Amino acid sequence: MLRLPYLLPVDVRTPDGDPLRSVDSPSSHELAADDYLLELHSPIKVYLRVSGRVHVEATTERVVFEFGDDATIDIGARSYHSAPGATITVPDDPEAMMKAVSTFPSALKTLSPERAWPTLRGHPPRVERGDELEIPSDLEVPDTGIRVTVPSEYWAVYTVAPLAYYLGAEVVPGESAHVTADTGAALHLGDEPGEIADATEALLKRVFFLDCVVRTEGLYPDELHERNVLEARADIDLDFADLYEVSPAERLAVYLTIPDEAVEAIASPWHRVTHTEANPGPEVAELLPYLVNDLSLVRPKVGSERSAAQSEIDDELDDALDSFLRRPGPSVEAAAIEDFYRSADAPNLRRDGESGSSVSGVPDLDEYVTLPEVDALEQAWVGDGTPIRGTKLLREAFANETPEPSDGTIDIAVVCNDERMREELASVGDIYGSRDDVPVSLTSKIGVSTGELRELLAENYDVFHFIGHIDGQGFECPDGILDAGTVEEVNATTVLLNGCRSHDQGIELVKAGASAAIVSLADLFNSGAVEIGETITRLLYHGFDVGTTMKIIREYTSIGDRYVVIGNPGVPVVQCDGFLPILCHITTKPTESESLNVQPIAYPVPEIGIGTVFEPEIFETNYYHLAIGEHADINITRDKLKSWISEDYEPVIFNGELIWGSELLTEM
User: Pick the residue with more confidence: 65 or 616?
Assistant: First the structure.
């Protein structure tokens, strides 16, 4: 017997790999005595080669394999290619960067439509800046006959890098931007940065989503909702089996003939868009392989993207920033700020009232970056300044990402350096220990000295959660201030600095070794900070990664807009207790008291990224959907929802409010 304490997808195949059946929902399967290859889609890919009888029993809580007494079982495993396997040295020259990007497709595990699976897209080589171009001779770069031509400008190279990687294309210099193939296929991408970014985004989405449909002819021939949608259209007549077998260049030629409306019918919002400065320099090159590995869209921030509506939004954000950062200026006098901090309300702030009107610890107002509205779940920024919405990416965060061997226990440290904030210490401690299927080692400390805080930061914690006073000078401790800029070693993966103005300190901790830091941009009132600390803890503990967690708290908590992520937004803390973290938007229907509208939104996590499929349990269908993004809403009864939701269920948005399983059941 082999028993796994959670439900995971399993594919049953012949010894040669041909698919027989899939198991990814509660069900029972009896396999007669024969030879089988079982593929278990776990965080480490596991294979069972079985000769004999097999019984598979899948429930919402486990998968159990029972074998005949005389069965022979061989067990194999492979890790995913989630880190760079080679290093390329590049001089500060856009055309040299083109040659480096042209090697990125060497990481693809296949050029067939199966490349749409996240586990069959390996990590591109690491890029380091140096005096001359050095490309390892053992990199096997595919020759697809596809070329992407762009001007010799860094913004152009960065913009087309994800597309070139996915297509297996060579990037070459030219006066105009276009994609060509040996088959004669050609597409003009535009002349201006905004046009080229739009066309590149549209082409990548077109090829990717069509690959997701065509690959159903291959290794995983499951019925897919998006294929059903495409086949039902009168303007589509495709031979999917033939498309699966032809070369990438021939497939691209066919894909370019498909009407835009048909592609839009099967597309869903992209998971992440990363913005660069309008004229980025060579420093972005070292981050580019990680953006491409994430298959993030990359766009230069250009003036043409700032519409009148966006300008109004940006102005409102600037006004809001000026208000909550409490900066001296034409409308806010420094003396008034100082009077406020000496008032009766000051103890409710997570800062030292004696700090007067100091605003150290956060960027100046003109160092904030407003990002344009995009059709994506998340946004990120590479460059000077800090985004108001999204993640500020730092190269050091990705260099820190190689994990140490783990015993499977989640190690968490919670430090509270102010007795008045013990409420958050107690509540997050309860949350961190609330899942029976996740072993947790929790260290809670109160009143930690500067020396002990430095030692805790150097230990291997999955999460380091600080509660207390922080400003530009550092962490307030009983014996003084610890400046993160003096900390030489940080081994915590994710740090949550829930104190006022922790932005600068978070940046220093990422540079010293953390992969992600959740930090504040402003002063925090204690009640709001407690809400944020509890909500972040719950979301991380339900399997949402850091970037998604911050997106949710910005939209659904009282002061979530005062926080931002520094580093790598794709860092998770624990594995989701389901297949993917899903946020269901549930609304009541005024005219039908017993009917509810439910729309699931699935978010990516490492190794289960864009291109994954799943079968939403609540849909009660026999076909799969592309997993990441919004899904068609459905109507269900209150009784049906009650049978589906448990007290420890993931968070939901109920009538516009973020609540949890136990609260939802009460509302029902």
Answer: 65
- Could you give the CA distance from residue 264 to residue 256 in angstroms, rounded to a whole number? 13
| d(C-alpha 244, C-alpha 115), whole Å | 11
Which residues pair with residue 440 across a beta bridge?
410
Give residue 383's region: left, alpha or beta (phi > 0; psi -120 to 50): left
Q: Does domain 360-371+385-567 have CATH number 3.40.50.1460?
A: yes
Helical residues (DSSP H) of 246-302, grouped into ranges: 248-255, 260-266, 288-293
Q: Where are the domains of the chain?
A: 2-78, 87-301, 360-371+385-567, 582-667
pLDDT tens, 450-503?
Answer: 999 999 999 999 999 999 999 878 999 999 999 999 999 999 999 999 999 999
Tell me the C-alpha distance between 249 and 148, whole Å: 12
Give the rounded distance of the alpha carbon of 617 from its chain centre.
23
Pairing of strands 625-626, 582-589: unpaired
Asked whether 342 and 353 are in contact (CB, 8 A), the reply is yes
Q: What are phi and psi of 616, to 5 degrees?
A: -55, 120
* Strands across the sheet containing 440-446: 297-300, 270-276, 376-382, 391-392, 563-567, 516-520, 494-498, 463-467, 410-416, 440-446
CB 630 within 8 A of CB 269: yes
Q: How far apart are the first and last CA of the chain?
A: 40
pLDDT tens digit sequence for 318-369: 555 554 444 333 333 334 333 433 343 444 555 554 443 345 677 776 688 9
Q: Whole-angstrom Cα distance, residue 8 to residue 42?
A: 7
Sign, CA dihedral 462-467-472-478, equals negative
Q: DSSP letter string over 615-665?
A: --GGG--SSBEE-SEE---EEEEHHHHHHH--TTPPPEEETTEEE-HHHHH
With contact defined as beta carbons under 8 Å apart, do 13 and 19 qualify?
Answer: yes
154-167 helix and 94-101 helix, angle to the nearest 10 degrees:
10
